[in-house]
Amino acid sequence: MITLNQLGKTFGTAMAVEDVSLTVPEGAFLVLLGPSGCGKTTILRMLAGLEHPTQGIIRFGDTVVADAGRGFTLEPGRRNAGLVFQSYALWPHMTVSGNVEWPLRVANLNREERRARVAEALEMLGVAKLANRYPGEISGGQQQRVAIARMIAPRPRVLLFDEPLSNLDATLRVEMRTELLRVHRATGATAVYVTHDQIEAMTMATHVAVMNGGKVEQFDTPQRLLSDPASAFVARFIGTPPANLIPVQDGSWFGMMPCAALRGASGHGMIRAEDLMLANAPEPGVIAANLVEVVPMAGRRLVTGLVQGQRLTAVTDPHSPLPADLHFRLPLAAAAIFDVQGRRVI
Amino acid sequence: MPIRPFRPLQLPAGLGLNLIVLLVLVLLVAAPLLTILMQTLAPDRIGAWRDVLASPLSPNLFWRPAANTMILGFGVATGCVLIGGLLAWLVVMTDMPFRRLIGFLATLPFMIPSFATALAWGTVFRNGRVGGGGGLLEGMGIAVPDALAWGMVPTMLVLIAHYYALAFTVIAAALATVNGDLVEAAQMTGANRRRVLFGIVLPVVMPAIIAGGSLCFAAAVSNFAAPALLGLPVRMQTLSTRLFGMIEIGQVERGYVLAILLIAISAVFLALGNRLLAGRRSFATISGKGGRARRFALGTARLPLTALALLICVLTTIVPILLLIAASLAPMASALFSNWTLQFWIGDADPAFARGQAGILNNPQLLRALSLTMGLGAIVALIANVIGILIAVALTRHRLRGISEAVSQLSFLPMLLPGIAFGAAYIALYGAPIGPLPALYGTTTLLALALTAAMLPFAVQTGRATVAQISGDIDEAARLTGAGFLRRIGAITLPLASRGLIASLLLCFVNVVSDLAIVVLLYTPTTPLFSVLSYRYASDGFHQFANAVTLVILAISTLAAGLAALLRGRNRPWLSS
Amino acid sequence: MMRPALFSLCLTLPLATPAFAQDLDMLTPADLLPLAQEEGTVTVYSFTSRIGRVEAAFEAAYPGIDMIGFDLSSTEMIARLRSEASAGIANADVIYVSDSPVVLTELLDAGLIAPYVPPRVADLLPDSAKSPVLQQRLSTKVLMYNEESYPDGAPVDNLWDLTQPAWNGRVMMVDPLQRGDYLDLMTEIVLRADEMAVAYEAAFGEEITLDDGITDAGRQFIVDLFANDVVLFGSTDDVNVAIGATGQDAAPIGFTTYSDRRDNADEGWALQVANEVMPSNGIVFPALLALNPNGPNPAAARLAVDFLMGDDTETGGAGFAPFYVAGDWATRTDIAPHPDAIPLDDFNGWRIDPQQTATIRADVADLILQVQ
Q1: Do B284 and A92 touch (CB under 8 A)?
Q2: pLDDT digits (tens, 9 = 90+) for C284-316
Q3: C347 vs B385, C124, C147, C183, C337, CA distance in Å?
Q4: Fold held by A2-232
Q5: What is the pLDDT of residues C114-125, one digit of tens each?
Q6: What is the model's pTM?
Q7: Cβ contact, residue pair C83, B424, below 8 Å
Q8: Which of residues 182 through 201 in chain B touch A, CB cutoff 8 A?
Q9: What is the rounded distance in angstroms from the CA atom of residue B24 to the CA atom of residue B453?
């Protein structure tokens, strides 16, 4: 169980993390999701003990590992946590097995135990054959596996990942996601995973904290993020394809198509791609668009058009013909309405 | 005739570059060296080899000096790496206060002539063995044993105090590029600071440590001033004092044989160093994203370590500089702190003073020498470093069996060649016209060529340490854009290497400006240089003038160093907090 | 091989032919002057920086001739002349050099320098100063002591005293294997082995017994001196400080340059020469003047040598002024000894014979190498 209590961090005068409180249970897979600069990595580094919070408390289970109020932080090495760096941070002067073994040496494990654990970890990540190679001699994907093996060999209770897949190609990334989940399940440890890729978050997380500007926008399960976004920011960030956020002014779509369901609101109305229909000709509730792209996707077809400079995407039946002039039919009601500040209104 | 598809000849990558740098080295280094070697192989001279290696003379002529030289070389290299490395670590990786100041001071000792450091030692530790009144300690009634006043111990300490700046420069540049993630990854395991330092940081910067150590080794075994001042009174000879003496008393062949042996022995050890380097994998940052630098908190050790670092810097920079200043003000070399006068600096020609010599700032030649020396220093430093970077790239990126070994060794040799032999070989080789090329005798070009060759060891070693830290991907990324080799060097490698490069430029500049041995054989009165001016004063017995000139050189070098630091400004991650 | 135009011109001009050079050798300064002015410059390689002051005086005396002086140590000069010659370059006109034993073998025998005695001063010089190469003046490496520490005069009167326990570790000199003039001093002691043997008897009242493998009293002295822990330095200045610094109770003694005594006041020394020493207090050796046989300005070269030998006044005038110092002596018999120094005739030092010295110099160096 990891608990953050009013966690904050300032660098000089810059506020990197502000008032973050959340709790995940033992064995959870928490993803800190957000664009770069949102403070997610800073939180991760505070969890690792590499940064000291300037506010708040961090607990692993019942153990306080950092308490800004008392000026207390537990050394990184004594938190029973492991970290996979974005750069992997493999020690270039050690072989693959040397990299995995070194933390075990530091932990004063005996030789037998070390050998067994190194073998186990390398085996688990499928890189046993590379044991005697140097990091500079293996591929990026292999380096990633070694970095993970190095992290899990000491059997930490908390697994920390700093955008670990961002340097991999798409195929490898999918493969490694599965791999990471397998490792997570096998170890039973609590994982905290930082990424800007919402697909990673949706596929891997049990809990997601969507972050923006140092604050948590929404802390929820992946499903709830989709079904019930707490802010326009979250709604825009989540989903494949993400939901359409259409500007609304005084109860009118685009300020020109009045709709009772908008209840006179100003801001954005959210329409999920699957709720947006195609139409052939202008009529009430239908708006003309310029076709941007058509993407076939797993038995469906995504059609994206541009309306007043705004991208709208609809999920359609791949077999129905595309209208000659693209028009979108808006549903009767918005799935959610956000005010001008992006706060959820309805 | 059947059309055959065009198939370019498959040559190893970088062969062209390797051949070009090899050619440059053959012309600049190997040819003069061969000239010297050939002189010792003439039928009437070949006996010198037997005299040196296998005769009743050889123990004193070669073996004992060789043993002293090696002890000195290894001792100095070790000491320099320890002190330079410690300071580099403190400055780059810890939260020590005054990092900027210490980082600056630690580069200075090399700019101070080693005789000044030796002089500083003598001022304190000099004992009655040489008459003339003792040093400060004896003045306070403390007896100084010979072992502390003369011979191996003081020579080694003085040379360490002088050359640790080389190791500092190279190691600090390398430490600054160590990916902070590597350190944090180690901290995550719970390893303590010591363990992180010895298990991770040191091995990763090992190439720089070996490069710095090699440089110090070569510098120490070829240094003449310190062993001559501090070793001779107890008859400690090194190969450098021995070979200087042999040339000086007219036994040139023996001198050259000693020089060649010095080169050979050093080459063996430097090759071992190279092997160590080559055996290790490239330590270039594995991924593109450089980690943030994280400073070790020194905790309770902060104050003692800061004090130690400051003490080292003060003892090795401030004290020798103050002594130099005193020596340029005191009329009597035997009483450095009395009757100070500015006559040696600004005095008019006065027959009653210093045999009518005017102060150096009244010497009309000074200004001309100033501009000429600065210009030559800048040009030579620049050319040497461009060649140095090319060689470093060839050595780190495009290693080719055989060629790389030769390139690596050749680039190190000039440091070990006696300047006088080097200068003579240059006149013999390039003084006369070669084919369509004009005679270079008496031209500044010849001077610049010889000095460039002499500076290569510095340029190449610092270059290697720097280039090794630049990830190959970065170069490859530029390559994919279609940028040519020179363009990549200019746009990618040089800017990234700028930190190490500026340090190396300074080292070369200072060396050129204060070099005498080569210059004195090649200069002409139309090209008066500082070192010649200074020599002229010293040979006339006026060390005050010579010291004043040295101080001018030092001041200019320090200014240049400061200017470079300013230019780099905030671009010094290891100094910003 | 192609030569640059300048040099080939010089080589093909009739001026450079031996016959013409012979003719030049006979000319008076007045006859040389117009030829020299036509040449316009003269380059002097000098082992002392005092050439700078000669330059000014020369150009004042002979307007229109530019004297270019190079400061080089004797060793550097020899290296430079040799490498220039092998590259076919003739840069220097006049060679002003010390280190005569090496010069004679390395340069004169190899034809890299040519002797020239200005006819104007030929009759004013002893024969020893004219052959094989012109000697301009004489300098010294002799036993000096601290006159403040020993107000009653030199503490030794025999070189053999220096091998006694009283002077153990208290005899200073520059390493003879670092500086040629000190090697010349050691060599002279060997050449004067007979005198050393006599001096030994005078000191100890018995005939000298030689160590195994030691062939004469001179070599025995070197062995004994080194066995008595003679202290070696890298430069004469260090020796001067060691011996001469004032405020010492029992200052050491040692070999250095007599003329350095003139710096006593400036430097805070109390150097004084020990002249009454058996069999001698050291050596007196020449500074040589010679021509480059292929020099580009043969007339100006001869004019410069003539100038450097001094004019007909009592102190040698402007050309000799930089060298008219106490403790050095002009070779010209008509130039008066410096009033502050012992006249050469009363000086107890041995005049070295460079050719004799050259014959055994390397052997002596080997001996020192073994006993060091």
Answers
A1: yes
A2: 999 999 999 999 999 999 999 999 999 988 888
A3: 58, 20, 18, 21, 11
A4: Rossmann fold (3.40.50)
A5: 999 999 999 999
A6: 0.79
A7: yes
A8: 182, 184-191, 195, 199-200
A9: 9
